[in-house]
């Protein structure tokens, strides 16, 4: 069904957190309650787009299948500088902020006023730094799509800048209270953006940045290595498989506190009043039986241990009761270390005969007369035998 729909970071993260919430949002298309901090972030992003877009010097995009060759006028050199465009004034910036402001999602007029004052202060401080050190953007609020080894992905990237070496730096604005370098190093969102840019631009990605707007701090990290991207691709594949097979079970956790769909979720849906008393009795009975089960289990273990001690003391394996006989049984198993086995097997050229140090496969090698006796002896010495005693019952 929805497996062919491109995954954004947001939809991937939503499914990974709770598949049922993903279904409510992306299949059932249920609306969520607006929240002030989301509204605030959207407004700030809109104003920053207005501020940065005049400096845009587009970079070279990869050709899609069937596209015509780009003309020389469409090509921009790696060292291209922003055109001499006058940035908007701080007054124009604040006017754009007032036009873009949205009032939805705030808990009270007082909360909205606090956020609006925060936004004015944040934008003015950013503007002063922006005028001193203007960026060299090749894209602003760019929507990119790609097929990543069979998985369709997409995303809106806040900014893509030209680096001093002619490469590209991905910049993602954050209005959160706190942000750290570790957030940038572990951000799966930046990883997905890197893949999108690498699939859509000819220049290499040379840096990833989470820009913390409240402190005017760019948290810059190198691009992700291939092995990190491969691990993320595997996680995306797990999500795609879940969506394709309609695996939409809820995953309870701390995130449930901010979910708008608790009334629809079986984890939180209330029992019908007509059946509440009957089901309450069942729960109480289950609780009582579970406690009895734990008590019986503990008593059973203590009794078995006492019988083992008696069997060892008297050297017996059969202890009669009034109607049944307790029989002491022995269960033996072997364990082998892969690190110890590997060089022994490789030296004999038989490493393909044992997978993951499987004890049965090792014992098969030990019984094989065609294997060098010295190799078999060393393999036998590499094992650790575990013996477990247990009790069985038979009629007297």
Topology:
Blueprint (H helix, E strand, L loop, with lengths): L8 H9 L1 H8 L9 H17 L37 H11 L8 H24 L4 E12 L2 E12 L5 E7 L6 H6 L1 H13 L4 E8 L4 E5 L4 H19 L31 H39 L3 E3 L3 E13 L1 H11 L10 H8 L6 H9 L1 E13 L1
Parallel strand pairs: 3-4
Antiparallel strand pairs: 1-2, 2-3, 4-5, 6-7, 7-8
Describe the structure.
It contains twelve helices and eight strands. A hairpin with a 4-residue loop joins β4 and β5. It is of the alpha+beta class. It has helices at 9-17, 19-26, 36-52, 90-100, 109-132, 181-186, 188-200, 226-244, 276-314, 338-348, 359-366, 373-381, and strands at residues 137-148, 151-162, 168-174, 205-212, 217-221, 318-320, 324-336, 383-395. The chain is flat and about 100 Å long. It has three domains: 2-262, Lambda Exonuclease, Chain A, CATH 3.90.320; 279-312; 317-395, no CATH class.
Number of strands: 8
Identify the strand order in the major beta sheet.
1-2-3-4-5
The CATH architecture of the largest domain would be Alpha-Beta Complex
Structural class: alpha+beta
For the sheet with most strands, the description reads: 5 strands, mixed
Order of helices and strands: HHHHHEEEHHEEHHEEHHHE
Ends: how far apart?
A: 62 Å
Strand content: 15-25%
Question: Percent range for helical residues?
Answer: 40-55%
CATH class category label of the largest domain: Alpha Beta
Shape: flat
Counting structural domains, the number is 3
* Average pLDDT taken over every residue: 90
CATH topology tier name of the largest domain: Lambda Exonuclease, Chain A
Radius of gyration: 33 Å
- Low-confidence region ranges: 68-80
């Amino acid at each position: 069904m929805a497996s062919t729909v491109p995954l954004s970071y947001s939809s991937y993260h939503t499914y990974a957190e709770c598949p049922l919430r993903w279904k409510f949002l992306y299949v059932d298309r249920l609306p969520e309650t607006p929240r002030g901090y989301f509204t605030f972030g959207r407004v700030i992003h809109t104003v920053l787009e207005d501020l940065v877009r005049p400096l845009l010097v587009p970079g070279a995009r990869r050709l899609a299948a069937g596209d015509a060759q780009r003309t020389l006028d469409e090509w921009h050199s790696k060292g291209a500088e922003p055109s001499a465009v006058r940035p908007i004034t701080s007054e124009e910036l604040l006017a754009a902020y007032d036009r873009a402001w949205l009032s939805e999602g705030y808990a009270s007029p007082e909360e909205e006023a606090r956020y609006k004052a925060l936004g004015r202060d944040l934008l003015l401080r950013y503007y002063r730094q922006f005028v001193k050190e203007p960026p060299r953007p090749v894209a602003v609020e760019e929507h990119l799509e790609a097929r990543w080894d069979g998985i369709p992905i997409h995303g809106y990237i806040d900014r893509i800048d030209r680096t001093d070496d002619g490469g590209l730096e991905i910049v993602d604005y954050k209005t959160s209270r706190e942000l750290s370098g570790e957030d940038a190093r572990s951000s799966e969102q930046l990883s997905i953006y890197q893949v999108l840019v690498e699939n859509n631009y000819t220049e290499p990605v040379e840096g990833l940045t989470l820009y913390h707007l409240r402190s005017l701090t760019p948290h810059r990290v190198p691009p992700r290595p291939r092995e990190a991207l491969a691990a993320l691709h595997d996680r995306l594949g797990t999500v795609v498989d879940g969506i394709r097979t309609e695996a939409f079970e809820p995953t309870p956790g701390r995130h449930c506190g901010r979910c708008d769909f608790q009334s629809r979720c079986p984890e939180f849906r209330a029992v019908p009043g007509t059946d509440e008393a009957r089901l309450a009795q069942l729960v109480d009975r289950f609780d009582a039986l579970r406690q009895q089960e734990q008590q019986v289990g503990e008593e059973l273990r203590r009794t078995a241990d006492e019988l083992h001690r008696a069997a060892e003391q008297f050297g017996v394996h059969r202890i009669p009761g009034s109607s049944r006989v307790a029989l002491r049984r022995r269960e033996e198993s072997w364990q082998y270390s892969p690190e110890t086995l590997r060089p022994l097997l490789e030296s004999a050229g038989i490493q393909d005969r044992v997978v993951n140090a499987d004890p049965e496969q090792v014992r098969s090698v030990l019984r094989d007369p065609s294997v060098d006796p010295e190799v078999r002896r060393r393999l036998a010495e590499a094992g650790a035998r575990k013996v477990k005693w247990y009790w069985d019952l038979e009629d007297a």
